[in-house]
C-alpha cells in the first residue's frame, strides 16, 4: 500500500480554488463498512413486503449512501457542509416515509434540528473563510499554525463544533434522537443509529485531531468530556426507564455517542498513540454500527412478525425464536462491552487510554455506564429466557422474505462478534495515508 | 468602520436573530422563515469577505453562496412540504373527531 493518501481534485482545480477529495485508510475502512451495511439493509428492505414501501425509498437510500461516502473522503470544509446536508435531507426523507400519523411531524422536527446544526456549521465555515481565506483541511492547518490566533477563530471553531454536536446528538442536545429513531421504520432507524449519526462524529474527530488541534482550549476539552459523560449516564438511565424496545435501543445510542465523544479528550504525545486512538475510535464506530443495526433489525423483525414491542412481551421467545433472541443477546453483549465482541475491544481500548492518561473520573463513568447498560439489557434477556414458553401463536409460515431477514440478522450478529478480533487490522489500515 | 466589517457585523447579527427566533417560536412557517434569515446572515458574511479594495473580488465566496442558496431553497421546500403535511394530517384528525362527536 502507498503511504501517501490518494487525492482527487474535482475538475482538475487545485486548492484553494478547487475541492480535494482524499482517500485515506480511515475513510476507506468506514466507506467499505458503510457500503456493506447499506447492501445488507437493501436486501432486508427488498425482502420486506414491498407494498408498504413507497417508490421514493430507493432513491433516498442511495442518495443517503452518496452523502455518507462523500463525508468520509472530503477534505474541504464547505464540501463537508454539502455532504452533511445531503445526508441530513435524505435521512429526513426516510423518516417521513415511515407509516404513522406523527411521522411528518417527527420528520419536520428532525429537519429543524438538522437545519440548526448545518446553519451553525456554515456560520463557522464563513467565519473561518473570512479569517484564513482557505477551506482545505491541510492548508487550513498550516494557516492556523502560522497565523496569530484571533478570537474570531475560536468563535468559528466553537460554532463548527456546536453544529456537529447538534447533528450527532451529544448529551444536552440529544432530545431529538429517541423521538426520531423510535418512530422511524426499523431499518431506517438502524441506518440512522448505525451510520448517519457517526458521520458528524467522524468529521468532528478528524477536524479535532488535525485541522483544529491548535485551537483546542482546555475549557473546550472539559465541556466535551462532561457532555460525553452526561450522555453515557443519561442515555443509559433513560434506556432503563423506557418500556419500549425501540426506545431502549434509541437511548442506548445516546449513551454510545457519549462513549465516542470520550475519545476526544485523550491527549496524545506520540504518533503511535494517536494512531491507536484513531483505530480504537473507528473500531467503536464499526462495532456500534454492527450491534445497533442487529438490534434494530431484530426488534423490527419481532414487531412485524409477532407484534411485540415491550420487553415483557418478549416472554418465552427464547424457545420460539432462538436465533433472533440470540442476535439480540449478541448485540447486547457488544453494547454493554462484554467479551467477545467488537464493543468489548473498543471499550477496553477507551478504558486503557483513560487509565494511562490518569483521567479516573471518566474511567469510572465508563464503568458505571457499562454496568447500568448491563442491567438494562439483562432485563430484556431475562424476560426472553426465564419465562415459560409463550402460548403458541400458531406456526408462522416462514416465507422466503422472512428467511432472508433472519439470515441477515444472524450474519450481522456474527460480524458483531468477529469485529472484536479486527483490532490489529484497523491499526494496519490506518498507517496508510495517515496525515 | 469600513464597509466590509459593517456588513460582516450585520451578517453576524442577522444570523443570531434568525437562530434565536427559530429556536423560540412554535409556528412552523415562522420557523422556516427564521432559518432563511439566519442563512442570509451567513451568506452576507461570506459576500462581505469577498471584497478587496484594489483587487477584483474573490470568486470562492460567490460559489459558496450560490451553492448555499440552492441548498437553503431545497431545505425550505422540504420543510414547507413537511409542515403542510403534518398540519393537514392533524387537522383531518381533529375534523374527524368533530364529525364523530
UniProtKB/TrEMBL annotation, chain B:
Keywords: Membrane, Transmembrane, Transmembrane helix. It is found in: Membrane. Pfam families: Oxidored_q2. The keyword Membrane applies. Coiled coil: none annotated. It is a multi-pass membrane protein. The chain crosses the membrane at residues 6-23, 28-51, 63-84. InterPro entries: NUOK/Mnh_C1-like (IPR039428). This is Na+/H+ antiporter subunit C. The lineage of its organism: Bacteria, Pseudomonadati, Pseudomonadota, Gammaproteobacteria, Alteromonadales.
Amino acid at each position: 500500500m502507498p503511504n501517501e493518501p490518494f487525492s482527487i481534485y474535482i475538475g482538475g482545480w487545485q486548492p484553494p480554488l478547487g475541492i480535494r477529495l482524499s482517500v485515506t485508510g480511515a475513510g476507506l475502512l468506514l466507506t467499505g463498512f458503510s457500503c456493506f451495511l447499506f447492501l445488507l439493509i437493501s436486501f432486508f428492505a427488498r425482502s420486506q413486503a414491498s407494498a408498504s414501501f413507497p417508490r421514493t425509498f430507493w432513491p433516498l437510500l442511495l442518495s443517503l449512501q452518496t452523502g455518507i461516502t462523500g463525508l468520509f473522503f472530503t477534505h474541504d470544509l464547505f464540501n463537508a457542509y454539502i455532504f452533511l446536508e445531503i445526508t441530513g435531507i435524505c435521512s429526513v426523507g426516510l423518516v417521513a416515509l415511515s407509516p404513522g400519523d406523527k411521522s411528518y411531524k417527527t420528520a419536520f422536527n428532525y429537519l429543524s434540528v438538522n437545519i440548526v446544526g448545518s446553519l451553525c456549521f456554515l456560520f463557522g465555515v464563513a467565519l473561518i473563510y473570512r479569517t484564513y481565506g482557505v477551506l482545505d483541511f491541510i492548508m487550513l492547518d498550516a494557516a492556523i499554525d502560522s497565523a496569530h490566533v484571533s478570537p474570531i477563530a475560536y468563535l468559528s471553531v466553537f460554532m463548527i463544533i456546536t453544529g456537529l454536536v447538534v447533528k450527532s446528538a451529544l448529551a444536552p442536545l440529544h432530545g431529538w434522537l429517541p423521538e426520531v429513531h423510535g418512530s422511524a421504520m426499523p431499518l431506517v432507524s438502524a441506518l440512522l443509529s448505525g451510520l448517519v449519526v457517526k458521520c458528524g462524529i467522524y468529521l468532528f474527530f478528524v477536524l479535532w485531531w488535525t485541522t483544529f488541534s491548535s485551537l483546542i482550549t482546555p475549557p473546550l476539552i472539559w465541556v466535551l468530556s462532561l457532555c460525553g459523560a452526561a450522555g453515557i449516564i443519561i442515555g443509559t438511565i433513560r434506556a432503563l426507564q423506557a418500556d419500549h424496545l425501540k426506545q431502549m435501543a434509541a437511548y442506548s445510542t445516546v449513551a454510545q455517542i457519549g462513549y465516542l465523544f470520550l475519545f476526544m479528550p485523550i491527549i496524545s504525545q506520540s504518533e503511535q498513540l494517536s494512531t491507536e486512538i484513531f483505530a480504537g475510535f473507528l473500531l467503536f464506530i464499526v462495532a456500534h454500527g454492527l450491534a445497533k443495526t442487529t438490534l434494530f433489525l431484530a426488534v423490527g423483525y419481532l414487531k412485524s412478525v409477532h407484534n411485540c414491542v415491550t420487553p415483557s412481551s418478549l416472554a418465552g421467545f427464547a424457545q420460539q425464536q432462538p436465533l433472533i433472541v440470540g442476535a439480540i443477546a449478541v448485540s447486547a453483549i457488544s453494547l454493554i462491552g462484554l467479551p467477545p465482541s467488537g464493543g468489548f475491544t473498543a471499550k477496553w481500548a477507551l478504558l486503557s487510554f483513560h487509565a494511562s492518561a490518569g483521567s479516573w473520573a471518566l474511567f469510572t463513568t465508563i464503568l458505571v455506564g457499562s454496568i447500568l447498560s448491563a442491567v438494562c439489557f439483562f432485563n430484556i434477556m431475562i424476560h426472553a429466557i426465564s419465562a415459560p414458553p409463550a402460548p403458541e401463536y400458531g406456526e408462522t409460515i416462514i416465507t422466503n422474505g422472512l428467511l432472508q431477514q433472519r439470515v441477515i440478522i444472524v450474519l450481522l450478529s456474527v460480524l458483531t462478534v468477529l469485529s472484536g478480533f479486527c483490532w490489529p487490522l484497523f491499526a494496519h489500515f490506518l498507517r496508510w495515508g495517515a496525515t | 468602520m469600513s464597509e466590509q466589517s459593517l456588513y460582516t457585523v450585520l451578517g453576524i447579527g442577522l444570523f443570531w436573530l434568525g437562530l434565536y427566533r427559530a429556536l423560540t417560536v412554535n409556528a412552523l412557517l415562522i420557523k422556516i422563515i427564521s432559518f432563511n434569515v439566519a442563512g442570509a446572515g451567513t451568506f452576507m458574511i461570506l459576500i462581505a469577505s469577498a471584497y478587496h479594495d484594489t483587487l477584483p473580488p474573490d470568486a470562492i465566496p460567490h460559489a459558496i453562496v450560490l451553492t448555499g442558496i440552492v441548498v437553503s431553497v431545497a431545505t425550505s421546500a422540504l420543510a414547507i412540504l413537511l409542515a403542510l403535511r403534518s398540519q393537514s394530517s392533524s387537522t383531518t384528525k381533529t375534523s374527524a373527531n368533530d364529525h364523530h362527536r
